[in-house]
Amino acid sequence: MTRKLLIVEDDPGLQSQMRWCFSEDLEVAVASDRESALAALRRDEPDVITLDLGLPPDPGGATEGFSLLEEILRLAPMTKVIVVTGREDKENSVKAIGMGASDFYQKPLDADILTFVVNRAFRLAELERENRDLARQRNGTNIKGIVAASPQMLAICRTLEKVAPTDVTTLITGETGTGKELLARAIHDLSPRACKPFAAINCAAIPENLLESELFGFEKGSFTGANQTKKGKIESANGGTLFLDEIGDMPMALQAKLLRFLQERVVDRVGSVTPIPVDVRVVCATHRDVRQLIESGDFREDLYYRISEITLDVPAVRERDGDALVIAQSLLKSLGKQMDRSNLAFTEDAINAINSYPWPGNVREMINKVKRATIMADGKRVTAEDLELPPGDSSTSSHINLRQVREQAERQAICQALQTTGFNMAQAARLLGVTRPTLYNLTDKYKIDTSAEISEV
User: Fold this and answer.
1) Between these two residues, 285 and 157, which has the higher pLDDT value?
2) SS3 at position 123
C-alpha cells in the first residue's frame, strides 16, 4: 500500500524543502491554505499530515491552523496530524496535542528529525490499521462467544463494554435464543469480578416452593428434609456476579424478598433471623415484556427500577442486518471442526435461504439447523435442503453488482454535495475532493440536471 503524506504549508520555499525530505516511495501532496488542504484530504485520504498552524488569513497566528486541525480530525479521525510550530511556540504545541494531534515538530527545518517524526506517525497509523483489521476478523466484537457484524449488535457490545467495569445492576431483554446468558457472562468476564464466582439460576425452571431456598439458602431444620445448612446462589456468588435468568417468571412473593436484598445487600436464609451481608453484582434477563407484566400486576414496578439501572435490549437475529449469514458461517466452521468435517461451505441457495428465513428461534434454532446440515451434507457443500430451510430470495445476493452499488453511492454523494452548496459547482467539487471538470463529467455521466440552479462562483 502506497503511503500518503499531505504537507500543509503556506511558504512555497518550505513546501519544496519539506517535499524533498522524503523518499520516492512516499506519495506527497501539498496544500497552502485551509480549502486546498480539505480538498486534498478528501481526494487523497493521506495517512499523515504535517500542518503549519500559521496559515492565511492569519499567517502570524494559529487560529486558522487550529480550525483546520479540528476539521481534519472530524472528517478523518484516524489520520495522524503532526503540527509544525515555531521554536518558542510550546503553548500551541501542547494545545494541538490536547485537541488530538498525534505529534509536533518545531522549526527550523531539519530533514533527519522531520523524516523520523513522519515515519513514526506512519508506523503508528499502520499499527492502528492492523488492529482494526484484526478486530474485523473477530467478527467486529471482542466479546467471547458473540459473533456479530451488524450495527445493531455491535452497539449492544459497545454498551456492554462500558457497563462491565461498573457495578450497576443490569437487565438484559430479548427473545429466547438471542444469547442473553452469553452477554451476562461477558459482563462478568470484563468486570473486576472476573476471577470471582459466576452463579446462574433460571427462575422459571425451579418450582416456586424451592426457588426461595435455592436463592437465599436455608438453615438446618428450617423445613422437612433440611438436614444441613446450605448456602443459596446469592451467597455462593459472593464477590462475583449473580445471574437471574427469566426473572419475569419470578413469583410475586419472592420479588419482595429480592427487592430487600438489592436495597440492603443482606441475605436472610430460610429459617434464620441473622442477616448475612453479601457483595455481589446482579445481572438479570428475561424474554418477557416487563412493562406489560407491571401493568398486569405480575411484576413489581419498584423491583423493575432496581434491576434495570442499565438495560440491554438484544435484537432478534432477523433484526440484525447481515448477522444471520455471519453467525451461520461461524457455526459451520466450528461444528465442522468438532465433527471432523472441516472446509464445509454453503451453496448459493443455502446463503439465500439463510438470509431470507426469519429465524423465529434465533441463534438456538440456527445451531440446530447447522448441526444437522453438517452431518447430512454430501461432499463439501451445504445446501438449503441440508439446512431444512425453504428456498430464499436470490435477489439480495446473486444479483449484487459492485459497479452498480458504487455508482449509486457516487450519484447520491454528488446530489448531496450540490444540494449542500446550493448547486455551486466549484464549492461542490471542493466538498467532494475532485476537480470541477471531473464533477461536470460525473453529472453528465449520471444525468444529474444542474442547469436550473447552476453556479460557477
Assistant:
1) 285
2) helix
Per-residue model confidence as pLDDT tens digits over 396-443: 544 456 677 788 888 888 888 888 888 888 888 888 888 888 888 888
Cβ-contact 448, 418 below 8 angstroms = yes
CA distance linking residue 177 with residue 287, whole number of Å: 9
Q: Which residues pair with 8 in a beta bridge?
A: 31, 51
3-state secondary structure 314-366: CCCHHHCCCHHHHHHHHHHHHHHHHCCCCCCEECHHHHHHHHHCCCCCHHHHH
Q: Quick one: CA dihedral 258, 262, 268, 273, positive or negative?
A: negative
Q: Please, where are the H alpha helices in 62-189?
A: 63-75, 90-99, 111-137, 151-163, 180-189
Handedness of CA 260, 265, 270, 273 (dihedral sign): negative
Are 373 and 336 spatial neighbours (Cβ–Cβ below 8 Å)? no
Mean pLDDT of all residues belonging to the chain: 87
Pairing of strands 48-52, 26-31: unpaired
Q: Which residues contact 398 (CB under 8 A, 6 or more apart)?
A: 348, 352
Inter-residue long-range contacts of 118-123, CB under 8 Å, 24+ positions, other chains counted: 118/5, 118/22, 118/48, 118/50, 118/82, 121/47, 121/48, 121/80, 121/82, 122/3, 122/5, 122/47, 122/48, 122/80
Provide the Cα torsion 209, 214, 218, 220; round to 10°: 90
Q: Is the dihedral of CA 164, 169, 174, 176 positive or negative?
A: positive
Give yes or no for a contact between 314 and 179, defined as CB atoms under 8 angstroms apart. Answer: yes
What is the full DSSP assignment across 135-163? HHHTTT--STT----SHHHHHHHHHHHHH
Q: Considering only CA atoms, which of 219, 207, 157 is closest in space to residue 187? A: 157
Backbone dihedral angles phi then psi of residue 248, each to the nearest 5 degrees:
-65, -20
pLDDT digits (tens, 9 = 90+) for 28-39: 999 999 999 999
Neighbour-count burial for 382-400, b at 16+ CB within 10 Å, e otherwise: bbbebbebeebeeeebeee
Cell numbers at 10, concatenated: 503556506
Asked if residue 201 lies in contact with residue 245, where contact means CB atoms within 8 angstroms, the answer is yes
CB 242 within 8 A of CB 280: yes
* 3-state secondary structure at position 29: strand
